[in-house]
Specification:
The protein contains 5 helices and no strands. By secondary structure, the chain is mostly helical. It has a domain of 103 residues. It is elongated and about 135 Å long. This is DUF4355 domain-containing protein.
Length: 214
Amino acid sequence: MNIKTTRAYAGFGFGHADPFTSMPMRACRLHPRRDPNGHKPGGGGNNDGGDDGGDGGDGGKPFTPITTQADFDKAIGARLTRERANYADYDTFKASHDELQKIKDGEKSEVQKERDRADAAEKRANEADHRDLQRSVAEAKGIPLKHAARLKGSTKEELEADADDYLEDYTPPAGGDKRPIPGKPRENLRGGGAPDDEPEETDPAKLAAQIPRN
């Protein structure tokens, strides 16, 4: 851009038409790094001073940097002393807690033992009642009492139904031979013999003695 062009532009403010192109010129935005008064942020203009300087560390005391190992150890020791003071009664509280926990555990164990004993007694009573019910049903159905424990069921009706099934398995059909109930001793009957005949020997030792030897 030459001097004439520069002067031409200088004679026209922003927002006016370009003297060369007759196109409106766009107004320029404020500098993003300046405030509405044209001052740079944090400096210049009539700003009343900058940020105040620090007042030092805690309590207004100036910060003293640690430059030696001795100063470092001293600072750490002071910090540990303060922390230990916060937990000075920890051991006492822990001992009290442990003692209380032992008492609670002991009470819980005794309660559990009583509960176990009560459950065992109830179980034995229920088993005894069930055995009595089995024997009662077996006796009513004509089943030998030694087979009463074979009856299955938790109620009288269930035991009676199982007893009927049990007897049905050993009841012969009409006109057939009766099958004995398991466990019932079989009678030693012989046909065609005289009433005065001696019974057949069944002792193995005596039978062996009757065998002739050469």
